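pasting for ref
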Amino acid sequence: MIAAPKTLFRVALAVPVLGLAALAGSPQIDAQVLSGHNSDAPVDYAADRIELQDRQDRVVLSGNVDVKQAELRLRAARTVVNFTNTGSMQIQRITASGGVVVTRPNETATGDVGIYDFNQRIITMTGNATIKRLNGDTLRGGRLVVDLNSGVSSASGGPGGRVSGTFSVPKQKGN
């Protein structure tokens, strides 16, 4: 069953939040950057298939999922949006999987899975999670977590159980 455009519009408004949070800031992932995103901007979404599963309280977008809002873009093989429907739809959790790629003009975040828990306000990228900035800064780990409540972000468990990355050193004037 195809979801009504109005329902999908509300779902699609929430999907880009995952991507923005995954990209927030530099390799030091700054959750404060989220305040600069225009969450009121129109959302465009496309997928090979969109299915509303009322009994399971979820919407599944599958096959070449592509969601855009302002300068933010989320691409994945599949995105599941879990919600409660007590008169008005409330997003509970968004899970994007299958080559998750989130881009903004100067940053790209990738991972096998991206999860945004709306109740806890925690965003997690897992499986080969990487953030790359246009200037060459990178951060790699098995798991990247952004806590939107505290503004604390962390990376853990990359290849060999370690986190790795590269950052650029600004050139000194006069040297």
